[in-house]
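Task: encode each sequence below as structure tokens.

Item 1
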Amino acid sequence: MIGFLAGIAFCVFASHRAGKPYDDMKPKRLPWHLIMVLAAFFAVIMLVHMINIFGYETGPENSLLGRR
């Protein structure tokens, strides 16, 4: 749960930093858009992990369409 919330919080922070106006005098050091996407991906992985811990099986063999 802590990892999920940390991922969401870091995603929101990176989104805020990516949306700030660009200053030509200061060099851009971090790619905040990429960091935001990676933090959101981490949060989704943590959500799936929590769902698996609570007992619900995920994966292609348990999907609605089944494994082909």
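Item 2
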Amino acid sequence: MVTALSARMRRVPAHPVRTYRFTAPNASDTPRLARDHVAGLLRHTGHGSLAETARLLVSEAVTNVYLHTRVPLLTVRTSVRPDRVFIAVVDASPRTVPEERAMAAHDADDECGRGLALVAALATAWGITWHGAPDPHEKSVWFELRKTA
């Protein structure tokens, strides 16, 4: 009986991935709410060393959605592992693609246009993924941050 029961039980990985979602209206205060949510989450899951970088990059990605789309909602998905985090900002505007510009192309006083350049400079990996083939219905701008040893 014990053998039959253990054979049916799922194996749980030693370090499971835990994913959290934050969904909010596409509004002017959403970048602040999203970055505060992610920073608090990372501090509470043992990733405090990544919190400030994540705050900055989430703020940039969510601000891009606010400034360049007309979607009613956006979602920030944060997946936590022991050594890294994966964060995706998802919106239902797959045809509006943020443009990456080199940091050097900006004046020191520029207040916008640096979002993806910051993501590229500070993230371990990043990209844009379209969801729903053959006709995508949403996209995500994602990035990964790893803990340093």
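Check on item 2: Residues 86 and 144 are 4 Å apart (CA to CA). The chain has four helices and five strands.
End of task.
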